[in-house]
Structure formats: structure tokens, C-alpha cells
Amino acid sequence: MTTIEPENIAYGHASFASHSAKPDKRRLEPRLAQEIFDWARKQDLEELRLAVVNESDSKTQDVYAALYHYVLAKKQDALIQRKDFIR
Questions:
Q1: Rounded to an integer, what distance in angstroms lies between the CA atom of residue 42 and that of residue 13?
Q2: 20 vs 15: CA distance, rounded Å
Q3: Residue 18 burial (CB < 10 Å; 0-12/13-18/19+)?
Q4: How large is the average pLDDT for residues 17-29?
Q5: Is residue 48 in some structural domain?
Q6: Per residue in 60-79, pLDDT tens?
Q7: Is residue 21 one of the residues assigned to a domain?
Q8: What are the residue ranges of helices labelled H in the chain?
Q9: CA–CA separation, 37 vs 71, rounded Å?
Q10: Domains in the chain: how many in total?
Q11: pLDDT recorded at residue 26
Q12: Domain encompassing residue 55
């Protein structure tokens, strides 16, 4: 699974750095993208999941889904890094 990082987010969808050789003029400023990801990390996973399920606009739903997966991956990484995690 590809992890979405703040420097790779664009308006309405995740834009991965290796996706295109041309720069996307619609990219968010890094500061604003970081604020979005900071906000997402503070949200409850269940609230983000419900936002995905209940959103009627498909593009907005895609954004919520990307944020949900980003937060889930960060929480999983933190859990795996714990010393008491058994592999």
C-alpha cells in the first residue's frame, strides 16, 4: 500500500510524486497540506471511516478515504515500533 504524505497531496485527490513528470499546478502549499494531515491525525479513526461511508460526493469521499488510510498507516507504524510488539 502506498502511503500518502503531506507533500504529495493535491486538490481533490492524492497526487503521487512518481505519477507524472509535469508539475501539478493545483498542488496545495506544503504548510496547508501539513495542516490537513495534522488535523486528520487528531481525528478518531471511526469518525473518519463514517465520513467516508456517509459522504455523497465521490471526490470528497476519496479525500476522506485517503486521510483514513493515512491515519491508519501511521497508527500501525507506531504500534509496530513499540518495544513490546511481537513479530
A1: 21
A2: 9
A3: exposed
A4: 62
A5: yes
A6: 999 999 999 999 999 999 99
A7: no
A8: 30-42, 45-54, 58-81
A9: 8
A10: 1
A11: 76
A12: 29-87
